[in-house]
């Protein structure tokens, strides 16, 4: 009956839920009986997660060795301002088994890899193996685009130019003799970096691709000779290069150097004394940077980090406290209403 | 549905400032903000002062003296052709013009400037597309909207310009297109045709060259009006041959926009003839009931009155608009401050670290200060998203939606007249939720404007109560049976049998004279439909009076240009009409001078009691008794008119008639001259009696007023009625209650004393207010202002105010006084042409489409059919719109702060190098795709309580009036909320990433992972926050929230996929699978 009327007049608005603003809707009323238990539940869940994270983080073993050498007593002090090749070594002891797999990191402090211009100072096309950009690198690489004789630099840019070039070896002191701990440098870079973003030009031998280009000014060796032990680990897909090129978010960072997964050390580093030998090349003294080596293992939640666990516990506790406060307020108001 | 429309009713919202006759003598210039359209007419020195049109002479109008300079030395006839152009763009000009118009907006200019900054390589911290893509989309949406509008206009123009019409060319009528018609052409128009231009009516197929027109397109009024050709043209210009030889020269006013006025003279064969509006057929009207008529084109195309009326509108802005702009400025200031701070930070950092870090060497030898300077601009770019680019577009979308909801509301649809509510602007909706003062017209707004003749007083005796035919008053009686009168209107009800008996006996001369006057003195048109007489009255009062006379046996049968035929108790009589002294709101009376069949000349006059009593003859009788009766009628809220007559001797009339003719020929100031002549004859009147007409209240008016009052809205009724009527109307519509104390304007002194007392009401007689032109009381500006302040202060302390005896101009003045001194949000509601001024003055104008035509509706912002819909408009739609808009704005600011300030925190850890915390594409799409939909839907659909509850609890309206949901406090709360959220979004990932490794041993603290984690958490937080703020969860909202998150992940995975990197190695650099990070909020 109403319908007929509607058809009579084209001016009559449609009687639909949408046009009449009567769409079926859920209007949640956040009453105390819902909110307070919800807060308690969320709080409990957060505290639970937090405790789990915290315990996991506490169990992770971590060995940090600062080798900047700013202290005259430090074995690396001599290398700090040396311009020649310099090697120093540090000893440390591990009291009980350092459970494997053990990861070997280098870390830099007060180092601004996240500086905007520095981060942008690379040529993605060049790193993708595009030979056109070998001859004419992007201007974003300035002032590391060409050398003084106007020969293009490959890989260009400040990021590549400042690649970390200290090398490390670790040896286990067994019965007074140094036993080298084998370090595994395979697969330390991101899969996509290795397979997608960075590519060597399809020229064999690789060296020919770099004809007419120069190595970055700070580099001792050109990019196609980065790894002398493994021909395939050269060029842009060199693992150390890839790790370096993935720039860090914060000025204090660690980067994966090697894994300890071989021989006797599959299950970790046994208790004992170890010697870390450092080929000290990378200058950080001028900008008050620090260098360190970190050995660590991981748990299900990743590396050692108490912050997350604590953050969860704090938020969880806050929820619980809030729920108690609300309960008190609620009780008061409820009684007030009863009066 | 889509009937052909005239052009002025263009398809956009901004139209029709209907110029009123009140603009000429300004009571108070600074008060009247209304548009004065006459002022801006181009006046050029070398032009003849008047328009001259020569019939059948196209060449004449091309003469050099009628040329005007168009461009450099190219001259063009100043007579416009009849082709019209309402569209703004054509194919070539669309892009540049539209862009130019869009870039007049500050926001768009701002983003354009940003874009230019981004192109400068030294300071470009974000790639150009982060600004360009949103800007292009925003501009694109607006451009598409404009394009669609303009295409409609193009189509309309084309349709109209190609309409056919017959034009007299080379002695013959030929079919021609409208666009080819020129000034001076003689055209022939047939029944039901639209009139192609402003045309002087020459002759028609009807007797006396009468021509009936429907002016619905012009003013929306549907009753027929008649136009009349001059007698001379009627007699001499009927045939094609005669018309072809017609060679008169017409001199008339310049083209203007006044639909109610036309003055001109026709010079033909050495004689001058006056021309007035009654001779004109205006473009946009339609010929009715007339087979054929001939006319001379006076104004064509853009010069026609209807075209002159379109276009110009005073732009109304809402409070929120203003506030929003100020907030954008605040954000802008904040942006500059923050950028400056970070730039300074960068300088210090560079001195301490940057300059010493060999790896950061950029090979440039800029000084520290210059680096800081560059960094400043860099940060302006990075932090630009604090000023939300999509804000204005989103606000427009929301307002459009709210307007649609008003149009769609079935509960504001009046089925009896098939009128839905119409929101005629889309920019004011949220203001509806902030109304503090309502100014209402009475007649037709509070009342139905359906007039019923109820009572009368004739020669001192009152009639109209329930009375038997013997004159005995009863409590109740059956209505009079009209079967004795075959012309009677059956719907007419009357309960005084005594009056009927009296009239049937024909003894009482005064009674007969009374109804005779009613049947003769009016401007009603009559039509015959199926043998029944149908009266077409311009005002409902007249209709009611003529209908009453008809039932009492004095039947108005027909009229010609100068005769009126009536049937007096069965006998037909024809009176010669010598002059018609028309009604207007200043004269408040109309008169007619008739020559009786027996040769007597008599003037009949009816009008408001005040003006009539001034002009009564000293020896008239029944003055006091009639006055008493009038007071009684007023107390019963009836509308009264006094009726009187005057006998005029032939010689007296002769003399007067001469003066009258002279005045009619006056080109300058014709109106005033006529008024003076009218004044001469309308004196020494003899009073017959007075009529009382009832105008019933509309349905639901008392409830609506009570409800609105509960919502804290002060209601002022502005009416032309006299004090007693106004007061009683006030009581009957519950504006006044017994609890209130009434103060009258006359008791000014008392008011001063009681100024502090609340709860009172005052009736103020505005007529008393002195105008500056009043010579006895020269008032200086300051004193005037003092009085105005006093008036507003006092009146605003009252709960309700009724202003009686106000003119349309005073209505507008009252509104602007309150606006000016109280800074309040005002709403005016009215239905008639006399409310147009007030409707346009108020912040929001509401028009009621009632009996009095569409002029009020045409100038209103919202229109509907019944007063009681006002409460739904304000308490439901207004309130919702306001709450939604506030919520939307608060959230919109919040989400952009939360988004942008993460960059700020990150700056402290990247050497203030304007490194962004997110990936570029995320920045590009954040406002467009990831966060806009849910908040837009909240702005469109959210309801805190449903409509029924809003109406039941009017106090829910109060927050809107106080503006407490969106102000600087809320803005800063949003700001701090944003700061807080951005802190969490930045520092929790910071803590989590600082010194840690992933499960696979890789160090995840690289920039990419960090950026993705912050971005993802931002998306979650923002979308969950809007979920918490959503009070009305429909499936759409749910879909939008989940959809936004899904879109984010979808796009992220695409952009981060290997494939897209292969295609654009240097654009999409964030390649790689992002390990799920274990943290959440």
Automatic annotation (TrEMBL), chain B:
<dbReference type="InterPro" id="IPR001757">
    <property type="entry name" value="P_typ_ATPase"/>
</dbReference>
<feature type="binding site">
    <location>
        <position position="443"/>
    </location>
    <ligand>
        <name>ATP</name>
    </ligand>
</feature>
<dbReference type="Pfam" id="PF00122">
    <property type="entry name" value="E1-E2_ATPase"/>
</dbReference>
<dbReference type="GO" id="GO:0000287">
    <property type="term" value="F:magnesium ion binding"/>
</dbReference>
<dbReference type="InterPro" id="IPR023214">
    <property type="entry name" value="HAD_sf"/>
</dbReference>
<feature type="active site" description="4-aspartylphosphate intermediate">
    <location>
        <position position="441"/>
    </location>
</feature>
<feature type="transmembrane region" description="Helical">
    <location>
        <begin position="326"/>
        <end position="349"/>
    </location>
</feature>
<feature type="transmembrane region" description="Helical">
    <location>
        <begin position="126"/>
        <end position="148"/>
    </location>
</feature>
<dbReference type="InterPro" id="IPR008250">
    <property type="entry name" value="ATPase_P-typ_transduc_dom_A_sf"/>
</dbReference>
<feature type="transmembrane region" description="Helical">
    <location>
        <begin position="888"/>
        <end position="909"/>
    </location>
</feature>
<feature type="domain" description="P-type ATPase N-terminal">
    <location>
        <begin position="54"/>
        <end position="132"/>
    </location>
</feature>
<feature type="binding site">
    <location>
        <position position="835"/>
    </location>
    <ligand>
        <name>ATP</name>
    </ligand>
</feature>
<feature type="region of interest" description="Disordered">
    <location>
        <begin position="1"/>
        <end position="51"/>
    </location>
</feature>
<dbReference type="GO" id="GO:0005802">
    <property type="term" value="C:trans-Golgi network"/>
</dbReference>
<feature type="transmembrane region" description="Helical">
    <location>
        <begin position="103"/>
        <end position="120"/>
    </location>
</feature>
<dbReference type="InterPro" id="IPR036412">
    <property type="entry name" value="HAD-like_sf"/>
</dbReference>
<feature type="region of interest" description="Disordered">
    <location>
        <begin position="762"/>
        <end position="783"/>
    </location>
</feature>
<feature type="domain" description="P-type ATPase A">
    <location>
        <begin position="161"/>
        <end position="225"/>
    </location>
</feature>
<keyword id="KW-0479">Metal-binding</keyword>
<feature type="binding site">
    <location>
        <position position="721"/>
    </location>
    <ligand>
        <name>ATP</name>
    </ligand>
</feature>
<feature type="binding site">
    <location>
        <position position="583"/>
    </location>
    <ligand>
        <name>ATP</name>
    </ligand>
</feature>
<feature type="transmembrane region" description="Helical">
    <location>
        <begin position="369"/>
        <end position="395"/>
    </location>
</feature>
<dbReference type="InterPro" id="IPR059000">
    <property type="entry name" value="ATPase_P-type_domA"/>
</dbReference>
<feature type="binding site">
    <location>
        <position position="720"/>
    </location>
    <ligand>
        <name>ATP</name>
    </ligand>
</feature>
<feature type="binding site">
    <location>
        <position position="805"/>
    </location>
    <ligand>
        <name>ATP</name>
    </ligand>
</feature>
<protein>
    <recommendedName>
        <fullName>Phospholipid-transporting ATPase</fullName>
        <ecNumber>7.6.2.1</ecNumber>
    </recommendedName>
</protein>
<feature type="binding site">
    <location>
        <position position="811"/>
    </location>
    <ligand>
        <name>ATP</name>
    </ligand>
</feature>
<feature type="binding site">
    <location>
        <position position="834"/>
    </location>
    <ligand>
        <name>ATP</name>
    </ligand>
</feature>
<dbReference type="GO" id="GO:0045332">
    <property type="term" value="P:phospholipid translocation"/>
</dbReference>
<dbReference type="InterPro" id="IPR006539">
    <property type="entry name" value="P-type_ATPase_IV"/>
</dbReference>
<feature type="transmembrane region" description="Helical">
    <location>
        <begin position="921"/>
        <end position="941"/>
    </location>
</feature>
<comment type="similarity">
    <text>Belongs to the cation transport ATPase (P-type) (TC 3.A.3) family. Type IV subfamily.</text>
</comment>
<dbReference type="InterPro" id="IPR032631">
    <property type="entry name" value="P-type_ATPase_N"/>
</dbReference>
<dbReference type="GO" id="GO:0005524">
    <property type="term" value="F:ATP binding"/>
</dbReference>
<keyword id="KW-0812">Transmembrane</keyword>
<dbReference type="GO" id="GO:0005886">
    <property type="term" value="C:plasma membrane"/>
</dbReference>
<keyword id="KW-0547">Nucleotide-binding</keyword>
<dbReference type="GO" id="GO:0140326">
    <property type="term" value="F:ATPase-coupled intramembrane lipid transporter activity"/>
</dbReference>
<feature type="binding site">
    <location>
        <position position="835"/>
    </location>
    <ligand>
        <name>Mg(2+)</name>
    </ligand>
</feature>
<dbReference type="Pfam" id="PF16209">
    <property type="entry name" value="PhoLip_ATPase_N"/>
</dbReference>
<feature type="binding site">
    <location>
        <position position="719"/>
    </location>
    <ligand>
        <name>ATP</name>
    </ligand>
</feature>
<dbReference type="GO" id="GO:0007030">
    <property type="term" value="P:Golgi organization"/>
</dbReference>
């Amino acid at each position: 009956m109403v319908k007929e009327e509607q058809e009579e007049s084209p001016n009559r608005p449609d009687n639909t839920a949408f046009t009449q603003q009567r769409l079926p809707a859920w209007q949640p009323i956040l009453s105390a009986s819902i909110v307070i238990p919800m807060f308690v539940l969320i709080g409990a869940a957060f505290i639970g997660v937090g405790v789990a994270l915290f315990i996991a983080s506490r169990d992770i073993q971590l060995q940090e060795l600062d080798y900047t050498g700013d202290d005259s007593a430090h074995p690396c002090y001599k290398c700090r301002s040396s311009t020649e090749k310099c090697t120093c070594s540090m000893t440390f002891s591990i009291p009980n088994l350092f459970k494997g797999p053990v990861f070997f990191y280098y870390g830099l402090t007060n180092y601004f890899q996240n500086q905007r211009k520095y981060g942008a100072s690379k040529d993605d096309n060049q790193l993708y193996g595009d030979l056109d950009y070998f001859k004419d690198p992007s201007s974003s690489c300035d002032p590391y685009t060409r050398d003084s004789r106007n020969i293009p630099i490959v890989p260009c840019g400040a990021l590549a130019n400042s690649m970390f070039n200290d090398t490390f070896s670790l040896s286990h002191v067994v019965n007074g003799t140094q036993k080298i701990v084998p370090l595994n440098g395979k697969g330390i870079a991101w899969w996509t970096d290795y397979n997608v973003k960075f590519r060597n030009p399809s020229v064999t031998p690789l060296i020919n691709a770099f004809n007419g280009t120069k190595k970055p000014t700070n580099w001792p060796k050109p990019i196609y000779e980065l790894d002398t032990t493994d021909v395939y680990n050269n060029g842009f897909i060199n693992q150390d290069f890839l790790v370096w090129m993935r720039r860090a978010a914060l000025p204090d960072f660690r980067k994966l150097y090697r894994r300890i997964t071989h021989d006797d050390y599959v299950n970790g580093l046994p208790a004992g004394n170890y010697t870390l030998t450092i080929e000290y090349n990378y200058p950080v003294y001028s900008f008050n940077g620090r260098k360190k080596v970190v050995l660590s293992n991981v748990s299900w939640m990743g590396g050692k980090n108490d912050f997350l666990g604590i953050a969860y516990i704090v938020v969880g506790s806050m929820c619980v406290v809030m729920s108690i406060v609300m309960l008190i307020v609620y009780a008061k108001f409820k009684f007030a209403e009863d009066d | 549905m889509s009937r052909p429309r005239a052009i002025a009713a263009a398809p956009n919202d901004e139209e029709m400032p209907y110029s009123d006759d009140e603009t000429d003598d300004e009571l108070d210039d600074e008060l009247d903000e209304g548009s004065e359209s006459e002022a801006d007419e181009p006046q050029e020195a070398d032009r003849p002062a008047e328009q001259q049109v020569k019939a059948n002479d196209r060449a004449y109008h091309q003469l050099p003296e009628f040329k005007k300079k168009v461009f450099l030395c190219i001259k063009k006839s100043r007579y416009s052709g009849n082709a019209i152009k309402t569209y703004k763009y054509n194919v070539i000009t669309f892009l540049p013009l539209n862009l130019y118009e869009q870039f007049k907006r500050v926001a768009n200019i701002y983003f354009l400037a940003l874009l230019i900054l981004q192109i400068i390589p030294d300071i470009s911290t974000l790639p150009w597309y982060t600004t360009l893509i949103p800007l292009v989309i925003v501009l694109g949406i607006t451009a598409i909207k404009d394009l669609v509008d303009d295409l409609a206009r193009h189509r309309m123009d084309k349709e109209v310009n190609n309409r056919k019409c017959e034009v007299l060319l080379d002695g013959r009528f030929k079919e021609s297109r409208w666009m080819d018609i020129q000034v001076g052409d003689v055209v022939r128009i047939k029944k039901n045709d639209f009139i192609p231009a402003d045309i002087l009516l020459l002759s028609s197929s009807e007797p006396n060259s009468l021509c009936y027109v429907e002016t619905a397109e012009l003013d929306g009024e549907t009753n027929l009006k008649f136009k009349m050709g001059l007698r001379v043209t009627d007699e001499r210009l009927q045939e094609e041959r005669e018309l072809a030889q017609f060679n008169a020269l017409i001199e008339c006013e310049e083209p203007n926009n006044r639909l109610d006025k036309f003055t001109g003279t026709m010079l033909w064969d050495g004689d001058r003839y006056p021309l007035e509006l009654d001779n004109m057929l205006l473009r946009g009207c339609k010929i009715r009931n007339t087979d054929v008529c001939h006319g001379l084109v006076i104004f064509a195309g853009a010069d026609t009155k209807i075209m002159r009326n379109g276009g110009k509108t005073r732009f109304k802005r809402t409070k929120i608009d203003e506030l929003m702009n100020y907030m954008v400025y605040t954000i802008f200031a904040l942006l500059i401050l923050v950028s400056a701070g970070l730039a300074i930070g960068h300088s210090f950092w560079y001195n301490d670290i940057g300059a010493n870090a060999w790896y950061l060497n950029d090979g440039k030898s800029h000084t520290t200060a210059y680096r800081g300077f560059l960094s400043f601009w860099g940060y302006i770019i990075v932090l630009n998203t604090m000023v939300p680019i999509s804000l204005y577009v989103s606000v427009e979308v929301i307002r459009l939606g709210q307007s649609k909801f008003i149009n769609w509301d079935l509960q504001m649809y009046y089925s009896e007249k098939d009128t839905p509510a119409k929101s005629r602007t889309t920019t004011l909706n949220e203001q509806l939720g902030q109304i503090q003062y309502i100014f209402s017209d009475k007649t037709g707004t509070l009342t139905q404007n359906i007039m019923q003749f109820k009572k009368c007083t004739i020669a001192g005796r009152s009639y109209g109560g329930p009375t038997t035919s013997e004159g005995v008053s009863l409590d109740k009686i059956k209505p009079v049976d009209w079967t004795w009168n075959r012309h009677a209107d059956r719907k007419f009800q009357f309960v005084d049998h005594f009056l009927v008996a009296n009239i049937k006996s024909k003894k009482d001369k005064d009674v007969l004279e009374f109804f005779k006057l009613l049947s003769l003195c009016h401007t009603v048109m009559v039509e015959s439909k199926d043998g029944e007489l149908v009266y077409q009255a311009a005002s409902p009062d007249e209709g009611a009076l003529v209908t009453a006379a008809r039932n009492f046996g004095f039947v108005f049968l027909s009229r010609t240009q100068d005769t009126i035929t009536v049937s007096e108790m069965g006998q037909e009589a024809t009176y010669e009409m010598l002059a018609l002294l028309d009604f207007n709101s200043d004269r408040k009376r109309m008169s007619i001078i008739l020559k009786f069949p027996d040769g007597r000349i008599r003037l009949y006059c009816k009008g408001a009691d005040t003006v009539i009593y001034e002009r009564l003859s000293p020896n008239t009788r029944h003055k006091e008794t009639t006055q008493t009766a009038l007071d009684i009628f007023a107390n019963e809220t009836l509308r009264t008119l006094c009726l009187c007559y005057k006998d005029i001797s032939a010689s007296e009339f002769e003399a007067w008639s001469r003066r009258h003719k002279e005045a009619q020929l006056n080109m300058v100031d014709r109106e005033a001259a006529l008024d003076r002549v009218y004044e001469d004859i309308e004196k020494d009147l003899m009073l017959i009696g007075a009529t009382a007409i009832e105008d019933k209240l509309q349905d639901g008016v008392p409830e609506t007023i009570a409800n609105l009052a509960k919502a804290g809205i002060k209601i002022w009724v502005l009416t032309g009625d006299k004090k007693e009527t106004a007061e009683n109307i006030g009581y009957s519509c519950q504006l006044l209650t017994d609890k209130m104390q009434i103060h009258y304007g006359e008791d000014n002194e008392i008011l001063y004393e009681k100024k502090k007392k609340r709860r009172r009401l005052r009736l103020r007689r505005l007529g008393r207010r002195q105008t500056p032109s009043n010579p006895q009381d020269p008032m200086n500006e300051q004193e005037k202002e003092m009085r105005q302040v006093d008036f507003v202060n006092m009146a605003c302390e009252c709960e309700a105010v009724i202003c009686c005896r106000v003119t349309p101009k005073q209505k507008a003045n009252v509104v602007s006084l309150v606006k000016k001194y109280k800074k309040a949000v005002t709403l005016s509601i009215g239905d008639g042409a006399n409310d147009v001024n007030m409707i346009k003055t108020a912040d929001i104008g509401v028009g009621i489409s009632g009996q009095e035509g569409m002029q009020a509706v045409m100038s209103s912002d919202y229109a509907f059919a019944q007063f009681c819909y006002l409460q739904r408009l304000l308490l439901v739609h207004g309130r919702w719109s306001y709450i939604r808009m506030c919520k939307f704005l608060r959230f919109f600011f919040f989400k952009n702060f939360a988004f942008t300030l993460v960059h700020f925190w990150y700056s402290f850890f990247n050497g203030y190098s304007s490194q962004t915390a997110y990936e570029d594409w995320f920045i590009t799409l954040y406002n467009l795709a990831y966060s806009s939909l849910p908040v837009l839907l909240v702005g469109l659909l959210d309801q805190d309580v449903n409509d029924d509850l809003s109406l039941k609890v009017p106090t829910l309206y109060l927050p809107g009036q106080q503006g407490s949901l969106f102000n600087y406090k809320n803005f800063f709360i949003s700001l701090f909320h944003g700061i807080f959220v951005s802190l969490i979004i930045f520092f929790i990932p910071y803590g989590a990433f600082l010194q840690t490794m992933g499960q696979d041993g890789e160090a995840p603290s690289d920039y990419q992972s960090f950026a993705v984690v912050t971005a993802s958490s931002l998306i979650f937080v923002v979308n969950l926050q809007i979920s918490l703020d959503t009070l009305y969860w429909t499936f759409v909202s749910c879909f939008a929230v989940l959809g936004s998150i899904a879109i984010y992940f979808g796009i992220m995975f695409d952009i981060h996929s290997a494939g897209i990197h292969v295609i654009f190695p240097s654009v999409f650099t964030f390649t790689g699978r992002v390990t799920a990070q274990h943290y959440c909020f």
